[in-house]
Amino acid sequence: DSGIQGASRATYFVGGAVVNAATNLRDEVLGVAAEVLDRAPESLFILSSNVISPDGQQISLAEVAAEFDRLGKSRRTLGIFDLSPYFPEDTTLNSVEAPQYAPLFVTGAHLAEVEVDTRTGEVRVLKMVAAHDVGRAVNRPDAQGQIEGAMMMGLGAALMEEVLPGHTTGFADYYLPTVKSMPEMEVILVEVPSRYGPYGVKGLGEAAMLPATPAIINAISRAIGPAAGGRRVRTIPATPERILATLRGEDER
Amino acid sequence: MTQPETGYLTPTTPQEAVEMLRGYAGHARVIAGGTDILPDVAKGALTAGQAHAPDCLIDITRIPELGKIEVGESWVIVGAAVPFVRLREHPYLASRFHALVDAAASVGALAIQTSATWAGNLVQALPAADGAIIAAALDAEVRVLVARSETGHSTVVRSETGHSTVEETGHSTVEERWLPVADLYAGPGRSRIDSTRELVTHIRFPIPVSTWGPPCWGTAWRRAGRRPSLVLPTLNCAVKVELERDRILPAAGVAIAMGPVGPCPVRAHSAEVFLAGKEPRPEVLAEAAQLALCDADPRSSVLRASREYRLAVLPVLVEDALTRAVRRARGVQD
Predict the structure, then answer these.
(1) Smallest Cβ distance to A178: which of B109, B306, B309?
(2) Which of A253, B2, B193, B288 has a C-alpha 20 to 30 A away from that of B240?
(3) How confident is the model at residue A9 (pLDDT cuts 50, 70, 90)?
(4) What is the ipTM of this complex?
(5) What would the pLDDT profile of B234-244 be if each residue is shown by its tens digit?
């Protein structure tokens, strides 16, 4: 009961439930195997597709499954990831004020290096570096890809994506970054385990996108600062026209 | 609503193609890359003056002579079925006509350049088509073929289902003419070429003649847009410069084409006249770039840029292109 399983919490919550279900299933498998092998369940372990005891007794998982069926025991187990005991309700608050518990505290930082043509307001993002504390990288290429995609979305928001009601007709004039807009990207995965997440995982989905846009806008503002009399870009997307207006001290259009 | 099926013919000579156009009497259209016409046909809407999809598309990409790039003594001749990607990859053009190669690389994105053609880009007659701007700077010309009925005429009988049949009578002659690109435009998006009757077979542009020593001319391309590819230009600009003893040739020594700053590609005449015979020092080029504004009357576009922005940035683009073209004319490597 944790709401939508998307965004930053999929691996955290679903992963937690999967770990719990897998642990429960393992306990049941070892319980049945212990009966068959006449050994204490806590002494058994699973190796490859067999349950093995320290004194060399073993039974295959297929045989254990057959024993499940013979006993009329379901092969399915349930997994639950419940953090509510760690986050007791604050009874001093009413239901509107009470915070939804959010055990996901994530940190990340992006750096952007940009080049601005101060005559035209054209921007080229040359390089971005993104560091994110993911707790533990369950799937390393996936985590890196998530962060690279987030940088692309952040770049689009910073420089070009804008809906102009009455004018924007579709993707022909809603400008998304293409490969030619993309900078050199470097991803740093920081792994400081979280307290409650399965195997220490933290969220990443949304977190990776948030810093990209301000990093680029700050870099542009710093690049044009001397030429713009210290004025900074205040509107996204920072189109060439808006950047030139900032440089010239005109009202942004 | 179901549309009548569009026919598709693949002639193997230009003469055959224009005969087919004549046979359909305005109800067929030429297709090469198809990047503009196919979306139109799919939508059922068509360009100027066309109330319905053509009865037939006449594909000119199977005509061998239209698929060639020929570099002669004094002209480069490009077939109408040559896609932009082949202009990009042509070794002679890459070493001598940088602006054409860069313009070809600016059209849409690589996937589009693989199919779209320079001739098609010109016939679309958009005021800032990359192919149109570079053609204007190169003083390009197009060869147009048309088949005319000599005796008698053909009549199209249009049935209620939208199908047409052609009744041919008599014989025809094929006429040919070369047309400067400056004469191609009837207005924004309207070409004087009627691609339901006429066929552009080739585009040619002159190779500047060096009166002394090694080649001393150069070209350059500069474009601004909301992103680096797959976007219509906010502004684009092509420049050709010919030097003689470190001065710009007094007669036709510089060409500056720019868009979208008018209903069709615009030459910066004031700047061109100003530069004639001058030594292209940086401050001279900067002054010429300011003069480009005399011939520019851009519009505001909410989705791309305001008139004010375009006027502010146009001189920068012209100056960049002039500087680069002069450097190339002096033989400085990029």
Answers:
(1) B109
(2) B193
(3) confident
(4) 0.87
(5) 999 999 999 98
